């Protein structure tokens, strides 16, 4: 289960405008409801290479909303550099590896970017 603390991405259909060369920070939370704990990793693939999020941000709001204190460290931050992106539109799919590291799920819909010069 994914979530976002950013109102700007929640339900957004138009792309997020990002200047070429900037670093886009994507922050949110992800939990493994089956294992009842935070996922083990959040990442995206850019040009065949993984960009991995920093995990373990404190999210007491998530633990409270989901009614389980084990979700308190479910936050993540992923810094996505756009240096190698040409100008144009891109879909960025976030993926989360389950708590056991045996599978992953994908955030739907993807985050839509418009990289500008």
Highlighted features:
single chain, mainly beta, Immunoglobulin-like, five-stranded antiparallel sheet, four-stranded antiparallel sheet, 12 strands, 6% helix, disordered N terminus
Q: Give the CA-based shape.
A: elongated
Number of strands: 12
Task: Return residue spans where pLDDT drops below 50 for at least 5 consecutive residues.
Answer: 2-7
- The CATH superfamily is identified as Immunoglobulins
Q: What is the CATH architecture descriptor?
A: Sandwich
| Name of the CATH first level | Mainly Beta
* CATH fold description: Immunoglobulin-like
| Percent of sequence in beta strands | over 45%
Distance, first to last CA: 34 Å
Mean pLDDT, rounded to whole units?
Answer: 88
Order of helices and strands: EEEEEEEHEEEEE
- In which range does the helix fraction lie? under 10%
Number of helices: 1
Could you say how many structural domains there are in total? 1
The major β-sheet equals: 5 strands, antiparallel
Would you summarize the structure shown here?
The chain is mainly beta and 117 residues long.
What can you tell me about this protein's structure?
- With 117 residues, the protein is mainly beta.
- It has a single domain (2-116), classed as Immunoglobulins (Immunoglobulin-like).
- It has one helix and twelve strands; from the N terminus they run E-E-E-E-E-E-E-H-E-E-E-E-E.
- The chain has one helix at 60-66; strands at residues 2-4, 16-19, 23-32, 37-38, 41-46, 49-52, 54-57, 75-81, 88-92, 95-97, 104-106, 111-116.
- Strands 1, 3, 4, 7 and 8 form a five-stranded antiparallel β-sheet that branches. Strands 6-5-10-11 form a four-stranded antiparallel β-sheet, with no helix packed on it.
- The longest helix has 7 residues, at 60-66.
- The radius of gyration is 14 Å and the shape is elongated.
- The termini are far apart.
């Amino acid at each position: 289960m994914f979530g976002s603390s950013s109102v700007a991405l929640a339900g957004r259909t138009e792309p997020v405008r990002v200047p070429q060369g900037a670093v886009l920070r994507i922050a949110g939370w992800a939990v493994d409801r089956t294992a009842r704990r935070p996922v083990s990793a959040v990442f995206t693939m850019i040009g065949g290479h993984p960009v991995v999020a920093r995990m373990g941000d404190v999210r007491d709001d998530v633990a409270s909303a989901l009614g389980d204190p084990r979700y308190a460290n479910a936050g993540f931050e992923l810094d996505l550099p756009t240096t190698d992106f040409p100008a144009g539109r891109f879909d960025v799919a976030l993926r989360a590896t389950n708590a056991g590291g045996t599978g992953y799920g994908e955030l739907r819909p993807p985050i839509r970017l418009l990289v500008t010069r």
